[in-house]
Design brief:
Elements: E1 5-8, E2 12-17, H1 24-36, E3 42-47, H2 64-78, E4 84-89, H3 91-103, E5 107-113, E6 133-134, H4 136-139, H5 144-153, E7 156-157, H6 159-175, H7 178-186, H8 194-201, E8 207-212, H9 224-227, E9 233-238, H10 245-248, H11 250-266
Parallel strand pairs: 2-3, 2-4, 4-5, 5-8, 6-7, 8-9
Antiparallel strand pairs: 1-3
């Protein structure tokens, strides 16, 4: 299994994991501007998950358990025994909790961005899509199919957010192996309940859980169960934010991530 990854900078290792069907560009563009402006040094490790981006797309690995095992081997090789930070977006947030359950207090802090809590989509408590603040004039410059896709994925759909969505999300979706994704979604639940493992840990490191009030992919209500697992967590539900919270509400997103990084240093 070949994992495509990108390491930037030196210092405290930070493993950043993107969501289902996307690639590392989603999480690079969200977090890299924050880390590059930090006075403290961080070694940012971005990875394309199996079946996505530039990583191998062998169907053998199309299960959450197998992807987690691959990531554990990757951490052992690239990070070793060093303490590190974890960041996970959507499916990456599910995988991050799997890694936390495995590495425990080797993980000094955790950020979950719109994380998957309930693997089975039909069992999630999701809000109905009803808000839209779209620049209809700008949307008319796209063909109808693409314009519909954009409106389904962005509440705030304007030139800036659409350009980011295309660069950070849609470009990754175009690279993903659809057969791999279909197989993965049939084997999407870990064989071990990692949240029960975390609950027993009393994981008291600074954490951040970011959710969108209008997130129609993973919701925000199920994520409250995660809040109870992390005694040192900041939990936010942002209005006017769907599953691309970091694109729709970048100012608040940046402030909250910076606050997490500050807590890691001042109040660890």
């Amino acid at each position: 299994m070949k994992l495509h990854y990108d390491i930037r900078g030196d210092g405290t290792p930070v493993l950043l994991i993107h969501g289902l069907g996307c690639d590392m560009n989603l999480i690079i563009d969200a977090f890299e501007p924050i880390f590059t402006n930090e006075t403290r040094n961080y070694k940012r490790i971005y990875v394309d998950l199996p079946g996505m981006g530039e990583s191998s797309k062998t169907l053998t690995y199309a299960s959450s358990d197998k992807i987690l095992t691959i990531l554990e081997k990757f951490v052992d090789k690239i990070i070793g025994k060093e303490h590190f930070l974890l960041v996970g977006q959507s499916f990456g947030g599910y995988l991050s909790r799997g890694l936390l359950a495995h590495y425990r207090f080797q993980v000094n802090g955790l950020t979950l961005l719109c994380p998957v809590v309930i693997p089975t989509s039909a069992d999630r408590d999701l809000p109905q899509q009803y808000l839209s603040f779209a620049d209809e004039k700008y949307l008319k410059t796209f063909d109808k199919k693409l314009a519909k896709l954009i409106k389904e994925n962005l509440i705030i759909a304007n030139k800036q957010t659409i350009e980011r969505q295309q660069k950070e999300v849609l470009s990754g979706l175009a690279k993903a192996d659809q057969q791999f994704l279909k197989a993965l979604q049939k084997d999407y639940t870990f064989s071990t309940n990692v949240d029960e493992v975390i609950a027993a840990m009393n994981y008291d490191k600074p954490s951040l859980i970011l959710t969108g009030h209008q997130d129609t992919r993973v919701g925000y209500k199920d994520q409250w169960k995660l809040f109870e697992l992390f005694p040192r967590a900041t939990f936010t539900v942002l209005d006017v934010a769907d599953h691309s919270l970091q694109i729709e509400e970048p100012t608040v997103f940046n402030v909250l991530v910076k606050n997490w990084l500050n807590r890691l240093v001042k109040f660890a």
